[in-house]
Amino acid sequence: MSVERTLKQFEEDRKEAAQLAARLLLASAVTSPRVGGVGECTVHIVEDECDIEDLCQAVEDLSKENKAWDFFMRDAAMLRDADVILVITSLRSLTDPSDINCNLCGKLTCEYMRKEDKLPAEPGVAFTGPLCTFRAMNISYAIDGIVSLARNMGIDYGVYWSAGAAAMRMGILPKATGFALAVAISVTEKSPFRDIPVKYSQINDRTMNDRIIRRLWPQFRSIYS
Amino acid sequence: MAITEMDDMLQSGLDRAVEMMALAAQTSFRFSNRNTIKVIKVTNEEIEQLAEFCFALGDMAPLAARDGRFAVDLIKEPAALLIIGDKRQSLFNYNCGACGYRTCAELNKAEMVESLTSNGPSCIFRNINIHIAADAAAAMAWRLGLHCRVFSTLGFAAKALEILPDIDTVVSVAVSAAKVNPFFDRHKFWTQEVWDQTFNKEFPTFTRGFIGAVEEG
């Protein structure tokens, strides 16, 4: 496709649509139900391309810490294609059990839960549990608040816990955050979060471009000119 | 021309709507595509059972008692309760640490602690999957114009009474086709006198001035 002013304009508007949608999705996340009616979730919008790249780097760093997190590399490749990433936090699950003795955490009462030792914050541990599960559940309503509105607005989305954990590790979330998840959104003709082939962290849009257009084409061009 | 009464239309509309909610719950987002939730609908008889159970908890669980007393009234007009539950063990192998165990294998091996409300320790992501289903159902109810509220108390009661058997964690979504929204601003339960009395008991320093002041009389 040739470069024209209108195409550049379309590219800009597309980006702006994603950023506008992110704010509406934030509204939907904030007004979704909270179990017990106590507020505890915050939503943070990461839309600057450099910030998104920082987050992706952090996800890749995390991937090396734990064998079970190999798929974080694939997540990072998808997140790089996102226009905006929304990070949703749970601010009470770590420090403020809900005092209803629901036993979701398996400690029978919140008093026992408070006395329990937390996992140390060290490599290979994403969240320093045990968390108050009843509190942490509020995050699901925020997530689905985003997802259900994104579906209605026709915005492509993907939900990742890797980016939530990475954002926590980067220290860009409120101090009390015990648990965090992320929703990436994209306004493109092909959702970057669906149809993900194997080895996607190695073979994707960026690496294909780099190998074929940026590496082979200049050589081809200098030989055959 | 056949005439259909309003009540019949409301009831059958509500039935369809609850089916749509179950559909939305079933097809909503799941982590790792692990869709193992169980969903049932209960109506008047069972809601009354749940409500009585909750109300009977009284001072032991004031939130449950509040919802119990309220649910008895709820079923006077067309209403239904969607109960969503699941088992507690991890199916994800995320090893994220949120449950307090380093690995999912450790969590799955840990001894189950049973209680009336739920059995723990449970996988946070599995719980999130349940609650995402609950929110999808709530979102559908909202779009269909039903009154709706998510109740963990009635869900816990359903687990205690084994209305939804063989589950470890649970939540419920109540919907109603009442004339006015019955779920919020439930002022009719509170006279000014009772409210003042309870408020003064719960927040004594609000009117007493400073901690340590002695009340008259």
Query: Can you name the CATH architecture of chain A?
Result: 3-Layer(aba) Sandwich
Helical run tally of chain A: 8
Helix content of chain B: 40-55%
Give a count of the beta strands of chain B, DSSP E runs of length 2 or more.
Answer: 4
Query: Quick one: CATH class of chain A?
Result: Alpha Beta
**N-C termini distance of chain B:** 72 Å
* Rounded average pLDDT of chain B: 91
Q: Summarize the largest interface: chains and residue counts.
A: A-B, 44 and 47 residues
Beta content of chain B: 5-15%
- Please trace the helix and strand order of chain B, writing H or E for each element: HEHHEHHEHEHH
How does the major sheet of chain B shape up? Answer: 4 strands, antiparallel
Radius of gyration of chain B: 21 Å
Determine the structural class of chain B based on helices, strands and strand pairing.
Answer: alpha+beta
CATH topology of chain A: NADH Oxidase
Query: How much helical structure, as a percent, in the residues of chain A?
Result: 40-55%
Low-confidence stretches of chain B: none
Global outline of chain A: globular
Mean pLDDT of chain A: 93
Description:
The complex is a heterodimer of chains A (225) and B (217). Chain A is 47% helix and 12% strand. Chain A contains eight helices and four strands; from the N terminus they run αβααβαααβαβα. A four-stranded antiparallel beta sheet of chain A has the order 1-2-4-3, sandwiched between helices. Chain B has one domain (9-208): NADH Oxidase (3-Layer(aba) Sandwich), CATH 3.40.109. Chain B has a four-stranded antiparallel beta sheet, sandwiched between helices. Classes of the chains: A alpha+beta (225), B alpha+beta (217). At the A-B interface, α5 and α6 of A face α5 of B.
